[in-house]
Structure to design on (115 residues):
């Protein structure tokens, strides 16, 4: 079975940094893209950033210049380096591996709290 496991969340003060990790295990039969989404209480899940199999990246406007996505192919792990964190970044952060619109996998999330 495919599993995505997020880690690295925690509580930080505004202006601080965290690095989230998304480790994939199991066989994913495609060159998948990996995305980070977040969901704050009472709000819809929103796109944060993604990276495709050749390393192209995209970011939501609200994280540009502060967050950096990267991947370690050898470890099947994608990272989200989050700097200059703001209280409004507080959310559960999820990673998603996408092969196609009908084939994708979600992790269970890691909580980020910024005070």
């Amino acid at each position: 079975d495919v599993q995505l496991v997020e880690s690295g969340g925690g509580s930080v003060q505004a202006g601080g940094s965290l690095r989230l990790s998304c480790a994939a295990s199991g066989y994913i039969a495609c060159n998948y893209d990996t995305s980070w989404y977040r969901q704050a209480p009472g709000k819809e899940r929103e796109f944060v950033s993604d990276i495709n199999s050749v390393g192209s990246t995209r970011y939501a406007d609200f994280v540009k210049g502060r967050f950096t996505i990267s991947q370690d192919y050898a470890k099947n792990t994608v990272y989200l380096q989050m700097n200059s964190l703001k209280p409004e970044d507080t959310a559960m952060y999820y990673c998603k591996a996408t092969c196609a619109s009908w084939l994708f996998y979600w992790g269970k999330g890691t909580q980020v709290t910024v005070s």
